[in-house]
Amino acid sequence: MANNRINNYIGAIAVGAALVAVPGCTDSWDDHYNGNGSVTETSDKTLWEVISSREDLSKFAEIVRQAKYYKDNTHPVSTYSYADILAGGQVNTVWAPDNDALSGPEGEKWIKMLTDLTNGDVSVADGYSLQQQLVGNHIALWRHNISETKTDTVKMINGKNLTFHRDMQNPSLEGISIDKDNINIPTANGVLHVLKGIAPFHYNFYEYLKFREPRTKIGDYVVGKDTTYFFASGSIEGLPDENGNPTYVDSVYYTSNRLFESRQYLPADGAEKWQMAEHGFAARINVEDSAFVMLLPTDAAWDATYSMLEPAYKYASTYEDKSKGNLNTTPTPTIKMTDEEADSLKKMSIEMDMVKPLVFNVNKQPKRGGSEMWTLKTFDQYKSEPGNPDNPNEYWLNTYGDTLRSVKGVWDKGTLFNGRLVEMSNGLAYEVDSWNFPRQFYAPDVEVEVENSGIFYNTESNRYKMGPGSRRYSFSNEAFSDITDIYGKVSNGNFYHFDAPSATAGPRVDIILQGNSANAYVPNAQVMSGKYDIQIVVVPRWYIDIANAATIEDKFYVQKVDTIVNPEDVTDTTFITTRTNEIDTTYVKSLADIYKYKLKATLSYNNNAAKDKTQASKNIDYDGLRVDTLTVIEDFEFPYSYKNMRFTYPTLYVEGVTGKNDAKNGFVFDLVIDKIILKRKN
Q1: Helices (DSSP H) in 123-170: which residue ranges?
Q2: Are 409 and 520 in a shared domain?
Q3: DSSP state at residue 135
């Protein structure tokens, strides 16, 4: 029973990955070797008995004898040491550092830690570090013998992948030499090699953030998202208590971190009450078999970035709750928070937005120069464009899904990684003194493509009226380039026609001001506290004629007339009309003159009252000639942020205000809109 339980423990340490032998690394149970590599019978002594009997391994034996097994960094098993594990039935290979190896500064550090642990002078986490960084870094499941000139990767029971050079003449583990006179020492439950040094321990990103001393602020943030769960089905159940509830003689726990698993986290129960969805970097930075690059802001960079972002994250104590869609509810439903809750929301939102863009998967980057895949080595070599001007990559893509492109003369994406390089077991970290993302990333314009579905917010019937001809139009800027090169391109290849609901009234629509543009720097940008210009990009009504015809008809081009006179009969004249490649600007202007329209916009925004406040623009005339950006409200300052809020947002009520008299002068009641832009000013 005890041996079975120990086997369960060691399997848990290896997180299941080491339970399967690495191909080429594992010898069968019946292949045994003596110290010189020749076949012999297995010893009847266990690994622990052999190690503890050798004078040259006395220091390692003492560590193994006292080192307790930890299920995770907070749950030691006080009744089992690694001596128990190496004396059990599980087959293991041990690369044991000799006394000389443990007499140096690195070894003395672990001996002191062991002494402190025995005296109860240090934290539980140090015992876990002893397990993960030393003991577990020198033990692997199954037999790994030295028998041929071959280099393998061996998964240790701490989950690390170490390089094992199995050459009889020059054996080593992760570059540390193995004593050639003490290899393949047989035992009843494995094999022993004597190591002439300490195998280096390589942090992965998560371990570096969690266990380095002193822990940084980004480390505090990441570790703060850890959640430890009790694994009932994996635990050993004992007798029920007096109330019939189960008890456990051996409890198994596991720890997960929601930052690693997905881009957005909401609880399974009660999600409807969460004001803000939590976003992570969707990268399992704790997994060894990965190739990540991560930016690690220093504490100074963390504080400076927080201060820089803070003005854009002012949260109110009251917001309109717009989660109920088109219900005309009285009184207006509200979201209420205390000042402390609003401050907490601000802190949570800023820190989340600082952290989520920091991880990059090397394997997911665009090919270098369009042909060569990136590796960790080439990434560090060519991460900055000036270092590789002839073969740059087009952009960086982080694991959250942001596409980061250089802007000539404004921002170079290579400057993101200007920091101290730290090599991790699963990638490269750059400890940076500045969070060097461009302004348009952290305080972006908000671009709302009006043709996208789900952007209309109608709480009252008189704020949402369109005619039956309202629809989205696809419009190819490339196919119609003769026109668009002169009169303007539409973004995203689409625009929306708001048909007049009657012969005497213009359309009306309330538009949700949340970014949804695929061309925007941050497609899902939300309005933040600060100053914006509110703009509407309008499209000529006559673009619909081209979209319907799917071509630019001849009438849009200047016509050339050739006259042919019959020499035998001068009265017999032929006129041949041919189309030129020149757009007939006079004809286009005549269309624009009968397709003008007027509009007005009203902004609804939070002012910390129960109901949103509004600010209306003046009536604005549009001449109907070209794609144009109309600034309807200039230098408007939103007093509060909507960043990361789930149930609230500002809206822009746009209405056609062409009157009967205007209609006599070439104005139509329809509106044709490409998108809404909130242009960030500060």
Answers
A1: 124-129
A2: no
A3: I
Q: What is the mean pLDDT of residues 263-272?
A: 70
What pLDDT is stored for residue 578 in this prediction?
Answer: 76
Amino acid at 461: S
Residues 137-149 have pLDDT tens digits of 999 999 999 987 7
613 and 489 part of one domain: yes
pLDDT of residue 254: 67
Distance CA 292, CA 238 (A): 43
What are the residues whose beta carbons fall under 8 Å from the beta carbon of 388, sequence distance 6 or more?
A: 368, 381, 382
Which structural domain, as residue segments, surrounds residue 285? Answer: 218-237+253-268+276-439
Instruction: Assess if residue 400 is contained within a domain.
Output: yes
Last residue of a domain, one of 413, 439, 465: 439
Return d(Cα 263, Cα 487) in angstroms, integer: 40
Residues 63, 470: Cα–Cα separation, whole Å: 77
- In this structure, how many other beta carbons lie within 10 angstroms of the beta carbon of residue 253? 15
Structure tokens at 69: 């097994």
**CA dist., res. 435 & res. 429, Å (int):** 14
- Measured CA to CA, the distance from residue 28 to residue 497 in angstroms comes to 73
Domain contains 574? no
What value does the mean pLDDT of the chain take? 84
> First-to-last CA distance in the chain?
68
In this structure, are 370 and 263 located in the same domain? yes
Are 675 and 518 in contact by the 8 Å Cβ rule? The answer is no
Which of 418, 439, 460 represents a domain boundary (last residue)? 439
Q: How many CA atoms lie within 13 A of 497 on its CB side?
A: 22
pLDDT band at 571 (very low <50, low <70, confident <90, very high): low
- Look up tokens 């002439």; give the residue: 196
- 311 and 456 in a single domain? The answer is no
Q: Residue 480: pLDDT band by 50, 70, 90 thresholds?
A: very high
Question: What is the rounded distance in angstroms from the CA atom of residue 379 to the CA atom of residue 33?
Answer: 43
- Asked if residue 229 and residue 98 are part of one domain, the reply reads no
User: Do 189 and 323 belong to one domain?
Assistant: no
Average pLDDT for 367-392: 74
Q: What is the SS3 assignment for 166?
A: coil
Average pLDDT of span 651-678: 93
Q: Which residue has the higher pLDDT, 216 or 383?
A: 216
The residue count of the chain comes to 682
Distances (CA, A) of 618 to 207, 507, 596, 655, 662: 58, 17, 17, 12, 16
Pairing verdict, β 620-622 and 161-165? unpaired
Q: At what angle do helices 105-119 and 58-66 cross, to 10 degrees?
A: 40
Does position 110 have pLDDT exceeding 70, yes or no?
yes
Torsion, Cα of 606, 611, 613, 614 (10° steps): 120
Confirm if 91 and 190 have CB atoms less than 8 A apart. yes
Give DSSP secondary structure letters for 404-426. Answer: E--BTTTB-GGGGG-EEEEEETT
All residues at 6 or more sequence positions from 283 whose CB lies less than 8 Å from its CB, including other chains: 260, 290, 292, 359, 361, 399
Q: What is d(CA 272, CA 259) in angstroms, rounded to the nearest whole number?
A: 20
The pLDDT of residue 618 is above 90? yes
Amino acid present at 74: T
- Confidence check: pLDDT of 667 > 50: yes
pLDDT tens digits for range 222-257: 999 888 766 666 666 667 777 767 766 666 666 778
Residues 396 and 517 in one domain: no
Judgement on whether residues 339 and 482 belong to the same structural domain of the protein: no
Q: Is the pLDDT of residue 8 over 50?
A: no
CATH number for position 491: 2.60.120.260
The beta strands (E) that lie in 206-250 are given as 226-230, 236-237, 248-250
Does residue 563 sit within a domain? no
Distance CA 532, CA 638 (A): 8
Instruction: Domain count for the chain, please give it.
Output: 3
Over residues 278-295, mean pLDDT: 91
